[in-house]
Amino acid sequence: MRIEINKIRTLELLLFLYCLSHTTLQAQKTKMPIEKKWWKEAVVYQIYPRSFKDSDGDGVGDIKGIISKLDYIKSLGIDAVWLNPIYSSPNEDNGYDISNYREIMKDFGTMQDFDLLLKEMHKRDIKLIMDLVVNHSSDEHEWFKQSRSSRDNPYRNYYHWWPAEQGKPPYRWSFFDVNSDAWKYDAQTNSYYLHYFSQKQPDLNWENPKVRNEVYDIMRFWLDKGIDGFRMDAFQFASKDTTWPELPKGYEKNIIKYYGVGPHLHEYLQEMNKEVFSKYDIMTVAEGAGSSPEDAMQFVDPDRKELNMAYHFESVDIGNHLKDFGLVKYKDIFSRYDQAFKDKGWLAIFLANHDQPRMVSKFGNDTPKFRAISSKMLSTFVLTMRGTPYYYCGDELGMDNIRFNSIEDYKDVDTRNKYIGLKNKGGDLRAFLEQQKQTSRENGRTPFQWDTTENEGFTTGTPWLKINPNYKTVNAEAQEKDQNSTLNYFRKLVKLRKQEPAFVYGNYTLLDKENPNVYAYKRELNGKKFIVLLNFSDTDANYNIGFLTLKSKIILGNYKSRKGIKPNILQPYEAQIIELK
Ligand code: GLC
């Protein structure tokens, strides 16, 4: 009998030792492999200034408007704001065509307003990231005015010119041109200039060291004011192969591959880092980073000393709506990128921005029944993935696509020019307008829905872009009062991310890979484990992840009650964050 008891004790001891070593091993396996940085831990909130808050009744959002809402922004729990361009601009492309990099756009206010904004943000411990557009300038920038004036002007080489006596330049595709032609003939000097975007956005010639030094000076100007970083707009296109080789037919369908990483791009980024970034404690992010995880790594590998992070477009360029491309493919993109970045480098996570339709309309379901619940589910995704979350203003309210019926309602150069181009060719305009209801950038640009007063509390004047009529039910004021609102759910998510480093730095493992409805993954760090379950469908969905123990606990979810729900089933658009003990 005594022997038996001893035997049992020994077995217990062995089991205990095994468990201990297993846990330690597991903890070691999930130890933080990545260097800690403030910008990895930050939650970034993107503000589209034109549409955020108007302070002077001209119908256009402005800097004073943002200042008046800083307490709201702070209340979200976010750490940094990325502000779309606020520099002087004739607004061909809403500020992405800069005519003076050291001045504030009149619509938005003055430099004094800007200085106050920065001060008030820092007072609240919010960092400010500026958007820098230096792949191109406005054609109204003094550099371009000089450059186009004569062939021997000192600014001539600030841009790309092709003398007409050499014939037509080799075709290049343009994102916004009516005829999709990136070379524009300019009679003044009988030459063509290059514009990857609209004709009013000529591309700067980064091969010219003078251009590069001008840009570094501009960067220093803003950094010395105390801003906290830059988003490098369209910078992946900055380096061109100036031997202008013929490109294969149809290359515009794979434009990033051909435009994405030109021959000297990384030299420029390294020089920029050495000259400017390395001298400040800031964050830098590339808009776009080639066409594969390997390309993206080149921008952000810390050993290369270029940028801190990048966002890629595979997950938004995948199609118009989740139901068209499917969840399995979608999960695969995030999982592939995460795998490539698990040891070094850093990415941004986003589902929407000012160039995209609203996240709930594209990846969720914006019918009245599911709009709020699916918005919460998508927010859960953004806030529990590895990578710095970039969260677009208005998504915390579940704002959705506007779906304009008429071309007159659109202000965006992209939609307008494509419409004209199609009209000239006698194309199907009705089909185009139908498609724009899903894809147009204007869907994400309608003014912020503050309250139920006329013009939704955005302006006392006439809004520059039509407001979404659902502001009567979808607005910040109503959601403040409702503990269960998408707004308050977003706040809880931000808080949770800040409390649990596992959501920032933890390993990510995809679970139930082939499940067409449920996105399930594990995040773990130093022995702490979380499972995130997201139902991307409008019906109940099964999942199979195997190892949920009795001790696991839902720490946050978007459904109030789960009574009567069978295990391994999620309700429509349900999100659960589970802690495994
Ligand atoms: C970036 C911006 C977009 C702009 C384009 C040209 O993609 O996000 O809004 O139109 O660059 O500057």
TrEMBL record:
GO terms classed as biological process: oligosaccharide catabolic process
CDD domains (UniProt xref): AmyAc_SI_OligoGlu_DGase (cd11333)
MF terms (GO), sorted A to Z: alpha-amylase activity
Coiled coil: none
Bilayer-crossing regions: none
All residue ranges annotated as the Glycosyl hydrolase family 13 catalytic domain in the record: 46-445
InterPro entries: GH (IPR017853), GH13_cat_dom (IPR006047), Glyco_hydro_b (IPR013780), O16G_dom_2 (IPR045857)
SMART domains noted in UniProt: Aamy
Keyword Hydrolase on entry: yes
Source superkingdom: Bacteria
Alphabetically ordered keywords of this record: Glycosidase, Hydrolase
Protein family (similarity comment): Belongs to the glycosyl hydrolase 13 family.
Record protein name field: Oligo-1,6-glucosidase
